[in-house]
Design a protein that fits this description.
This is tRNA N6-adenosine threonylcarbamoyltransferase. It catalyses: L-threonylcarbamoyladenylate + adenosine(37) in tRNA = N(6)-L-threonylcarbamoyladenosine(37) in tRNA + AMP + H(+). Its main location: cytoplasm. Pfam families: TsaD (PF00814). The chain has about 350 residues and is of the alpha/beta class. It folds into two domains: about 10-130 and about 325-340, ATPase, nucleotide binding domain (Nucleotidyltransferase, domain 5, 2-Layer Sandwich), CATH 3.30.420.40; about 145-320, ATPase, nucleotide binding domain (Nucleotidyltransferase, domain 5). It contains ten helices and ten strands. A five-stranded mixed beta sheet has the order 3-2-1-4-5, sandwiched between helices. The structure holds 5'-O-[(R)-(carboxyoxy)(hydroxy)phosphoryl]adenosine (KG4) and zinc ion. 5'-O-[(R)-(carboxyoxy)(hydroxy)phosphoryl]adenosine binds next to helix 5 and helix 6.
């Protein structure tokens, strides 16, 4: 176990769980009371162009691209001023994600740890998303934001958490089928938009009418906090099929806008219900889908409507680092270091929170 006995630590973080190769170099301080990060280097090599012709991530190609990118990004970080000798530890994502991709980061991290004789801390990608709030420019004050409700919406996960503080949290809901990002990507494909579909749907939705088509809001009335997006995706498919049969013109922008509205309605309703039940002082939203500006704006507007009196209103904290990156991994690695939490240094594609 690595003892958390230093006021300031220099961290190199590595992320390769899906289709972004990312490294960051930060100095962390402040401990659990006020975790603070000074960013010295933050680089991401995206593989979007590589996977786009296939309409999704191809694991074997992702693996090869990570292997190519890792040494180049490491050199970029070193050229930017990192002296590996001054690192306190290296942290790497061990899961969840694509195992062949995860292994590339783990092997690279192991080599560096050995070469420079540094401790290696395995960390959880989902905690990375959760803690990405901490590396944002507008730093939340841990004394004021708990209890909190956290919503993680990514390509692989949809999770609702109740948090007592930074390190004590409980999962209260999750998707029973597709993740939100996955639904965005699949619906995008149905209307011939390229991968990744989320940003494309958001762009097209701006030209459409969100009230044009009344897509279902799955499980919105259920008492629990689980989500389901597979049925919503299927109703888009049926809508397209029925329109084609009836020789009705389809307006893709209306489909995009109406689908996006259905998703945000469900996410917002469930999250705000949890806020009320748990008397939360803040709502933290992270993961790739939280990059969606329309979703953020609808969250903000719904919070204002539901809590008209400002002093009762939970604070909305949206990560600036929504899509996969290595800063969030530095943040979760630091939290693991402070807590003495140790993950096995091996890829676990299904690692949970
Ligand atoms: O967190 P992330 O980068 O990777 C995972 O951990 O999965 O999330 C990727 C997902 C993809 O499904 C992508 O379509 C979605 O996030 N996404 C968006 C937007 N930007 C990325 N979804 C909706 N609106 C966006 N602007
Ligand atoms: Zn992610």
């Amino acid at each position: 176990m690595i003892l958390a006995n230093k006021e300031k630590v220099n961290i190199l973080s590595i992320e390769t769980s899906c289709d972004e190769t990312a490294l960051s170099f930060v100095t962390a301080s402040g401990g659990l009371k006020k975790p603070t990060f000074v960013v010295h280097g933050d680089v991401v090599a995206s593989q979007i162009k590589l996977h786009q012709p296939f309409g999704g991530v191809v694991p074997a190609l992702a693996k090869r691209a990570h292997i190519e990118h890792l040494p180049l990004l490491f050199k970029e970080i070193v050229d930017g001023g990192m002296r590996p000798e001054e690192l306190d530890f290296i942290t790497v994502t061990v899961g969840p994600g694509l195992e062949p991709a995860l292994w590339t980061g783990i092997e690279f991290a192991k080599q560096l740890a050995e070469q420079y004789n540094k401790p290696l801390i395995g960390t959880n990608h989902l905690e990375g998303h959760l803690y990405s709030i901490l590396v944002s420019k507008e730093k939340p004050d841990p004394k004021k934001i708990f209890p909190a409700i956290a919503l993680i919406v990514s390509g692989g996960h949809t999770l609702l958490l109740q948090m007592d503080d930074l390190t004590h949290f409980k999962k209260i809901g999750e998707t029973v089928d597709d993740a939100v990002g996955e639904a965005f990507d699949k619906v995008a494909r149905m209307i011939d938009l390229p991968y990744p579909g989320g940003p494309e749907i958001e762009r097209l939705a701006k030209e459409g009418n969100p009230m044009a088509i009344n897509f279902p809001r799955p499980m919105v009335g259920h008492k629990n906090y689980n989500f389901s997006f597979s049925g919503l995706k299927t109703s888009v498919l049926y809508y397209l099929r029925d329109s084609a049969k009836a020789k009705k013109d389809i307006v893709k922008a209306d489909i995009a806008a109406s689908f996006q509205r259905a998703v945000s309605d469900v996410l917002i309703k469930k999250t705000l219900r949890a806020v009320e039940e748990f008397d939360a002082k803040s709502i933290m939203i992270s993961g790739g889908v939280s990059a969606n500006r329309t979703l953020r704006a609808e969250f903000a507007a719904s919070i204002e409507k539901r809590f008209p009196i400002k002093k009762d209103r939970p604070e909305l904290l949206v990560s600036e680092f929504s899509t996969d990156n290595a800063l969030m991994i530095a943040a979760s690695g630091y939290m693991d270091y402070l807590r003495g939490k140790e993950y096995k240094i091996e890829a676990d594609g299904n690692l949970n929170l």
